[in-house]
Amino acid sequence: MAIMTFDFGGSAVKYGVWADEKLTNKGKFTTPATWAEMKQNMVDVVSTVTDIEGIAISAPGVVNVEKQVIEGISAIPYIHHFNIFSELERLFGLPVTIENDANCAGMAEIFFGAAKGHQEVAFVIAGTGIGGAVFHQGKIAKGAHLYGGEFGLMILDQGKTFSELGTAVQMAWRYCDRTNVPRGTVEGQEVFERAEAGDTIAQEEVAKFYDYMAQGLFSIQYALDPEIIVVGGGVSAKAGLFEEINARVAEMNALRNLKDFVPKIVPCKYLNDANLVGAVANFEARRNWE
User: Fold this and answer.
1) CATH 3.30.420.40 residue ranges in the chain?
2) What radius of gyration, in Å, describes the C-alpha atoms of the chain?
3) What is the rounded average pLDDT of the residues 229-234?
C-alpha cells in the first residue's frame, strides 16, 4: 500500500507516491486559480495510482487539525476557512491529513532525516524569510495559538526580525541596495561567490548573514534547549555554511561562559522533497497517535 502526497505551493503543487520508504512518481502542476480546479487536478493525479491508502498534504497557512480548517492567510486564498479535511475525504473516499508546510519539512527530518532518533528538536527553514517547527517528546509543539516555530518573528537587531535579517535572500537584497542595482539583480549564491573573489561589500554582507543566522540559532537553542537544531532551505546546501555558523555560536557561548554543552546545529537531509516526505510523516504519525 502507498500514500499519495501533495505539497501546495503558491506557484506549483508538487506530488509523489510514498511506498517502501521511498518517494516515487514525482511530478507537479501549476497551482490552479480555483478550488474546483485544484480538486480536479488532484483527482487526475490520484487516478493514475493504485492501492492508495491515504492522502497526505503539506499546505501553507495555520493548519488547525482539531477544527479541520486552514486558518490565517497564504498565497492560495481558496484553501482557507472551511472544513477542507472532510471535503477531500469525501472526494477521495480515503483518510486525509494536512499540516503546515514548515511543520511538514521538520517532520521529514525527525521521522526520516537528520533528527531521526531525537525527541527535542528545533527545525529552522531559511528561504525568503525564516520559518520552522518545534518538536517536544517527538511531537509537534504548536503552542497555544498555533504559532510555535514562527522563529522568523524573533527580533534580532533594532526592531528587525530574524526573517528580515538572517536569510541569504535578504543578504542579496542588502547587497543590491548598497551597490545601487535593483533587488533580484544579484542573488545569494552570487554574493557568496563575489565575497570569495574579494568584493568588500559582498564580504561584509556575507559576514552579517552568518552573524544574524548564528544569533537566531543561539537564541533558539537557549530558549528551547533542543537536542539538535536542523536547518533547511536552499542555503543549507552551501559548502562551509555550518562550519561558519557553529564557529560563531561557539564564540557566543565562550563570551557568556556557557560550557555545559555544545549546541548541535546540522543541515537537513531533505531539500526539495522535504514537504512531500514530511506530509507522509504527519500521516503516519496521526495514524499512530489516534
Assistant:
1) 2-106+272-288, 115-268
2) 20
3) 92
Sign of CA dihedral 185, 190, 194, 200: positive
Distance CA 115, CA 122 (A): 9
Strand partners, 64: 69
Task: Write the pLDDT tens digit of every residue in 170-183.
Answer: 999 999 999 999 99
| C-alpha dihedral sign at 220, 231, 107, 64 | positive
* Protein fold of 2-106+272-288: Nucleotidyltransferase; domain 5 (3.30.420)
What distances in angstroms separate CA 200 from CA 108, 191, 192, 203, one per listed residue? 38, 11, 11, 5
Is the CATH number of domain 115-268 3.30.420.40? yes
Sheet containing strand 2-8, edge to edge, reads 22-30, 12-19, 2-8, 52-59, 96-100
- The pTM of the full predicted model, rounded to 2 decimals, is 0.84
